[in-house]
Amino acid sequence: MNLSRRNFFKGAVLGTAGMGVASAALMAGCAPQSKAEADLAETGTGATESDYPIQVLGSMEEAAESFEGDVVVLGCGPGGIACATRLAEQGARVLIVEKTDVIGGTGLVASGNCYISLNSQFQLDQGHEADIAAFYKEWLEAVHYHCDHEVLSTYLRNCGQVVDWMLGQGFGYRLKETPPTNGLSGFAYRISQPAKGDGNREETYGNMVDKVIAAGGAFYPNCTGTELIVDEEGTVVGLRADRAGEAVDFMGKAVVIASGGYGANREMIEKYSVNPLLGRDPVLNNGEGAQMAWAAGAQKPWNLGILCVDTLYPVDADHVSYPGGVQALGNVMGDAGKARMHVNQLGRRFHSEDAFCWVPTYGGTNGAAYNEPWLFAIADQAAIDALQTEDESVNDAYLESMIGLGVLFKGDTPAELAEAAGWDPEVFAAEFDNYNTLCTNGEDPVFFKSAEYLVAYGDGPYYAVRLAPTPFGTCGDLCVTPKMEVRGTEPGSTVKGLYAVGTETVGTMHNDYYWALGQTVGWAHTSGYLAAEEIAASVLA
Fold first, then answer.
1. How far apart are CA 299 and CA 381, in angstroms?
2. 104 φ, ψ (degrees, to nearest 5)
């Protein structure tokens, strides 16, 4: 049911009396990554839109318990934590509402080797100065100008100072160069966040939440948002959540949605997204934030349903990923991978492998857009022998296990490989022979693959590693202003009292593919910080 703003405001109710502030005892300790991943995987079951009865706000019953602060933040991931901490530094009492007991959310599992940072003092002190205007123009060209230009500019002009602020919180940035990509080569434009597993993320985020609590706020774990609460003027003033089957209200002067999209909600992915697959990472972002905001009159982005898509991991027919081992055969970021032929679900070559390897997210999203659910990297016995020399775990028993799982296919000849993989043997054999001819001639007249990567195959047996365009999260459910206010459905309008940060808003910055390679955590920190600045200046002043 789609409610108009007028009907929504008419039917909405205020939270009840008897409010208080939770004690610091509610705060959960910083979970190790394995615990965080287990919690996320266990609870990320994909709630349906009907599980959030936001269409019946007018009949809300009295909550079992109510709490009051200055600002309510839904989500304890990078964006929510940054927003809450910056608000706390300015004296605000912030109530952080989190569906799990994990502090840090998917920020604990994101790689983050390409964190966008322009002209932070951290970089300038090491001689790395960025040309923000040039980078801005290059970004616009890369996304075909399909983004909110002012929001993008706001991000690029502020991300550096937020890096310095996060360094002050204890976040351990480092200079770690990764393979160059369009506009992102060099330490002047990107740095790396702390490595996964070294404990810095958990410690820093935990300390930031401690700071929120010390300022009079609170952290409420195991509370899933279900309804926004507005006053008689239609301003969002609170959030109703479910805690172990009971309704709990959290009241304030503004609400910040930082719940990270709907990457674990199969129903919403199938409804809105081009590629109806669940992500590979243990996310549990079920879309409740977006659903509540839409019901309150929030605008849906023009590109709603765009996914952050990658293609790096071998997968089985159920899209279960198997990192390590034969992943090296399909490692499209390595030179050896670029030299291999890729074929689609029909055993046909369908793109330039080296272009795909340049940015695997491009190839993944392109495959999703053109209904290519599978990508197979073809290897010969020499490639297997080399892999086994480098990795002793890739023994015959392991290879047989991958074959049994439907991740790896094998045949003594190209035709036999085709039969094993389910392709037309004549079609694939012709593709294979044609590719070897291209390699011999050193020229690819169709896909213009670089001659240096046209390496002919040797003797069999031959192998095919199954890869897939695999989404690892949604990419923007809400439109925001440069102040992180949630835009309304009417031109120039906003949903008063409602802000959004992090992945909920990334769609305003991207086109139909995930361009900036790992920068979502940087955007989460920056947007959270900017939302806090705006709320402190215009709502709490």
1. 54
2. 120, -20
Domain 5-106+199-307+473-508+519-538: which topology? FAD/NAD(P)-binding domain (3.50.50)
CA distance 119 to 453: 36
Helices 200-214 and 78-89, axial angle in degrees (round to 10): 40
Q: Which long-range contacts (CB under 8 A, 24 or more apart) does 366-371 make?
A: 366/469, 366/513, 367/311, 367/468, 367/469, 368/274, 368/275, 368/307, 368/309, 368/469, 368/471, 369/274, 369/512
ω before 461 within 30° of 0 (cis)?
Answer: yes
Hey, what are 433's tokens? 């022979």
Q: Domain extents for the chain?
A: 5-106+199-307+473-508+519-538, 115-191, 312-468
Look at strands 307-310 and 342-343 and give their pairing: unpaired
3-class SS of residue 501: coil
Sequence-separated (6 or more) residues with CB below 8 Å from residue 500: 256, 257, 258, 289, 293, 478, 480, 484, 486, 531
The helix, strand and coil proportions of the chain, stated in percent and rounded to the nearest 5, come to: 40, 15, 45
Give the architecture (CATH level 2) of 312-468: Alpha-Beta Complex (3.90)
Only one residue has tokens 């080569």, namely 185
Measured in degrees and rounded to the nearest 5, phi and psi for residue 220 equal: -115, 100
Strand ranges inside 87-165, DSSP E: 94-97, 115-116
Adjacency order of strands within the sheet including 408-411: 342-343, 375-380, 462-467, 408-411
**Closest Cα to residue 238, out of 296, 300, 297, 301?**
296
Report the alpha-carbon distance of residue 502 to residue 82 in Å, rounded. 10
Q: Which of 232, 284, 227, 213 is nearest to 257 (CA)?
A: 227
Q: 193-247: per-residue pLDDT in tens?
A: 998 889 999 999 999 999 999 999 999 999 999 999 998 888 999 999 999 999 9
Q: How far is CA 528 from CA 7, 11, 408, 478, 482, in A?
A: 30, 30, 43, 14, 12
Residue 118 CA to residue 157 CA, distance in Å, equals: 7
| Structure confidence by residue, pLDDT tens digits, 323-354 | 889 988 876 666 677 889 999 999 999 888 87
With 0-12 / 13-18 / 19 or more C-beta atoms within 10 angstroms meaning exposed / middle / buried, residue 141 is exposed
Q: How far is CA 212 from the centre of its chain?
A: 25
Give the other-Cβ count within 10 Å of 437's Cβ.
Answer: 11
